Amino acid sequence: MIVADDTAFVRDRFSTALASAGHKALAVKSAAELLSMLRTDADDIDLLVIDLRLPHAGGVELVRTIRKIDAGRIPILIFSGTISSADEVKHLASLGVAGYVNEYSAVQNILPSLAPHLFPDNFNRRSSPRVLLGIPVSYRFGNTIAAALTLNVSKGGVAIRTMSPLPQEAKVRVRFRLPGSKHEIEAESRVAWSDRRTGMGLQFEKVESADQQAIYHFVDQHFFSNRKA
């Protein structure tokens, strides 16, 4: 895989985290380097994690150029802080971008955030933007109630860090409180993916309208904050 970012701090943290888990990660700092590698070794690359504001060739056009080279084969993740608008998200979705990741997430969250793309056969991935967030969450499955921390929150569900994930398609009632809110959100959900190395993803199936709007607002507000200039 390739990690492309013009900030050494970001490149080094992601590359080191991936290498420590046994993955081969190539780090590049420019669009020219990235495109050169793709033209030479596209068949050997299984994931791209890129800064959308690389010098001299950034934005949606960079992704369009990548797609001309790989014909849509390689999953692409975008560093969320480099997105400038909701319109860009729509354009990227039309180009088959696989998801988004926070370039400044804590080191221990890097592998969990990439896990759906490193182990794609085990995950049913949500396509909406995700906010990496570790907040307390409780969930009920039958007569069992458990507590854990979230890995991320999206408009359509939450990912939970746990070493004892529930089976896929299990019905779960989840409860959590968004930062800055005094109100607890409850949602009827199903387990969309489950992996003992990471945790599980819950897809919302029934949420009160006001709660869903609060989630929408939170994700939009935080996903587009702290962008690169």
Q: Could you explain the architecture of this structure?
A:
The chain is of the alpha/beta class. The protein has two domains: 2-118, Rossmann fold, CATH 3.40.50; 130-223, predicted glycosyltransferase like domains (Thrombin, subunit H). It is 31% helix and 29% strand. The protein is built from six helices and twelve strands. Strands 7-8-9-12-11-10 form a six-stranded antiparallel barrel. A hairpin with an 8-residue loop joins strand 10 and strand 11 (185-195). Helix 2 (31-41) packs parallel to helix 3. It is globular. The mean pLDDT is 85.
What's the count of strands? 12
* Integer count of domains: 2
Instruction: Give the CATH class of the largest domain.
Output: Alpha Beta
β-strand percent reads: 25-35%
Order of helix and strand elements from N to C terminus: EHEHEHEHEHEEEEEEEH
Global geometry: globular
| Share of residues in helices | 25-40%
How do the strands of the widest beta sheet line up side by side?
A: 7-8-9-12-11-10
